[in-house]
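Lecture notes, unit on binding sites. The following record was shown on slide 14. It pairs a sequence with zinc ion.
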Amino acid sequence: MHTDKFTIKQSVLTNSAGEKMYALAAEMFPICRSITGNGVRQSLDIIKKHLPIDINEVPTGRKVFDWEVPKEWNIKNAYIKNSQGEEIISFKNSNLHVLNYSVPVHKHVSLDELRPHLFFLQDQPDWIPYRTSYYKEDWGFCISYNQFKTLTEDVYEVFIDSTLEPGHLTYGEYYLRGAVEDEVLISAHICHPSLANDNLSGISVAVFLAKQLEKMPRRYSYRFLFIPGTIGAITWLAVNEKNAAKIKHGLVLSLLGDAGNFTYKKSRRDTAEIDRIVSAVLMASDSKNRVIDFIPYGYDERQYCSPGFNMAVGCLSRSTYGQYIQYHTSADNLDFIRPEFLEGSLNMTVKIIETLEANQKFLNLNPMCEPQLGKRGLYNLRGGNNDSKEFQMALLWVLNLSDGTHSLLDIHVRSKMNFDIVKEAANSLLEAKLVREIS
Ligand code: ZN
């Protein structure tokens, strides 16, 4: 279906980061993922070709706070045949055709008996909806409304060759050590079947962000999670409850491959450092980006921001869930995401991390009146042009506000000066021994 276009795009832009991210999404796209099972394992094996992740398995039945790790679900095939023996719906055409987590079934039913097991979208008659039934044992098929309308009275053979048995919940984890033990959490869900923006875009951005961070000097340590939504985050938090306190900042990454402007949903804390940093970076890049308040709905920030953990974890996306009509349908496919948007998202996350890494506090070591900058070679450093005047102002702001209570982000906000110039000024003052780092 999408192969032709994908091949053309690949040949045009083979070497860009965006194209590599798109290729990773395309490689994972056909796999039937769910909250457990071989689809998650296969996807993690693909990620492992890029990053040395640990793959962890937690057994069915393990209590994880108020929940329990469910039985493991796997599927080989599914179809509906009419009385002529024609396969009118086939799992092989789209894994969205099967209600995700359907129990096995093989029987002959009338249209009346079949109808309650069919899911479709009247508003989007060409598209197949994505539906799940994780915690209520059921079976079903998802079809386009146009196909539903063609169904006539008949005897239908329904077959779902699945298993729902004790097994494991699988997740991937990658830890990247920095200078300090304080951690930044990057979390992406890995439980949706053939859906591109919702699921694969976040995974691709997280993988390529990790690859970039491997090459960068790091103050913080980084922990990347590739986990099934909700139950995966709950399981990880239950297994790692004691270590969760090391996480000082975090981002859930999702919906990052479409054309929409960026949306940042703040953590429950509302004014955490990550909230202020992402807001500042987004606003500095484009006023069309938006920052929205925390609500206890959405992706795994729901678990990270539950009151018992209250972690400083927000969610970065472009369009938000429910905000684009392709959401949770067969139209959220490889045509809906684009290499350039994935690359823009990667660049944005890198910028956020660079800002977070640089956001330190300094102490002015010469606080009694202004120090004499000229004798230290810091006055009119760049020959009196506008750049130089701006840099002079940044030096004065950093000196003035570096009383031990203001971070570079505070200085950037108060001075309304570009963060990078503030950072450069702080570095020059550090070299001149006029300030020292205090955190
Ligand atoms: Zn989703």
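Take-home: The mean pLDDT is 95.
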